[in-house]
Amino acid sequence: MEDRRHHSRHATELQLEVYDLHTGNRLGRVVDLSLDGFMLFSEKPLATDTVWECRLVPADPVDGISEVRLGADCLWSRPGADGQHAWTGFHIIDLAEDQARALEAVLGRI
């Protein structure tokens, strides 16, 4: 499969949880992240071809940043090997300028 990413993804040990902006429901934990997208490890698969407004929330604030708000398109979702979890890939499609700076700061810490 051709990799069309413009920015390299970075695996993270930083605990970064993702929540649905509207419902507050936890979607999962970020496994890798770039300026273009991210991959989640979640409790259940998410529907592909869906758009989400998300909050990326570090367990501990990064340089005073307690969350990053963005819009993301769910490109794919696959069940985990244990059948109880899932891996899900997102493309970031909406990121305000101030949120892009916040995301860059978070990326600088992973």
TrEMBL record:
SUPFAM superfamilies per record: PilZ domain-like
Annotated protein name in UniProt: PilZ domain-containing protein
PilZ domain residues: 3-106
Pfam families named among the record's database cross-references: PilZ
Gene3D superfamilies assigned: predicted glycosyltransferase like domains
Organism of this sequence: Pseudomonas tohonis
GO MF terms, alphabetically ordered: cyclic-di-GMP binding
